[in-house]
Amino acid sequence: MAEFHEAVIIGGGPAGLTAGLYLMRAGIDALLLEKAILGGAVINTWQIENYPGFPEGISGKDLMERFSAHAKAFNLKIKEFASVEEVSLKDRLFTVKTEKNIYESKGIIIATGTQSIKLGIPGEDRFLGRGISFCATCDGMFFKDLDVAVIGGGDAAIEEGLSLANIVKKVYVIHRRDTLRAQKILQERAFKNSKIEFLFNKRPVEFKGKDSIEYIVLEDTRDKNITELKVDGVFIYAGSRPDVAFLGDLVDTDEEGFIITDENLATKTKGLFAAGDVRKKRLRQVSTAVGDGALAAFELERYLIELKQ
Length: 309
Ligand SMILES: Cc1cc2nc3c(=O)[nH]c(=O)nc-3n(C[C@H](O)[C@H](O)[C@H](O)COP(=O)(O)OP(=O)(O)OC[C@H]3O[C@@H](n4cnc5c(N)ncnc54)[C@H](O)[C@@H]3O)c2cc1C
Hints:
Structural class: alpha/beta
Number of helices: 7
Order of helices and strands: EHEHEEEEEHEHEHEHEEEEEEEH
Distance between the termini: 28 Å
Bound molecules: flavin-adenine dinucleotide
Oligomer: single chain
Strand content: 25-35%
Largest sheet: 7 strands, mixed
Number of domains: 2
């Protein structure tokens, strides 16, 4: 027997929790489904300095605990460890399936964010959890006073490289280009940090070791020269992609898989909205996810009013 809610939000990061807060304050019966624990991608981030209202910075965990507490204070119904596997639509009623339950709703907000991209090179799967990680805040302490490499040149790579530099002996930042994509303020801090060494124009082609990772095989992107770098740990920040296969053909996506919405966050299916990192947009941050969550909830409310009339 399916459990009915006027609205279902899929994903419990900044976008989903904001949408939940707005829906509850609008008097809409909303349920949020989160496949892991609440908080989303930022939950393991050591320090967030660009979310307004926290000039001294705040950890991702603390910020997201505030988001969750705020949504819960308005009685948002939340189910953690509920991974949505399929969404379908019949006669303007959505059916949402998780492994254990079936839900029905009149409107849906997709706020499932993105997942880290693997490099897809030899040794990556073998050493995952044996020296290779996607989360410095989670695993950095395992490498206290050791040498690690961070792969990537964007905000996440440089932020996490700076955070690792507080713990480890040395951080190599390996980037395939000769300039970084990260914000200027982060770049300046990293360039000044004596524990961080930049290896530009290099890309990893293999990870080697016995029981745990010992070497990264690097190819120079200009002359294809191969070298080996000895490390104890590797943190991969090679970007991220959404996974929205569970929506079937209810949404259109761009060539990278991000959901295409109009400016009111509506997808091609009436009653189905997308908010946050999962949708095609230019800036993926907590602040933009929050704005999306609020707008998607507002538009969903209008859609429900329209349905009643
Ligand atoms: C290392 C790192 C550092 C960052 N630092 C900053 C920063 O300093 N400042 C800043 O503004 N932004 C930062 N960001 C970006 C920020 O984390 C994202 O822009 C923001 O979290 C997007 O929010 P979201 O709600 O759209 O998605 P997410 O935060 O990704 O949340 C999506 C949620 O949906 C859940 N989910 C996914 N699929 C399903 C499913 N099928 N069923 C149920 N639940 C599902 C996920 O488990 C997740 O909890 C950082 C990101 C990373 C990775």
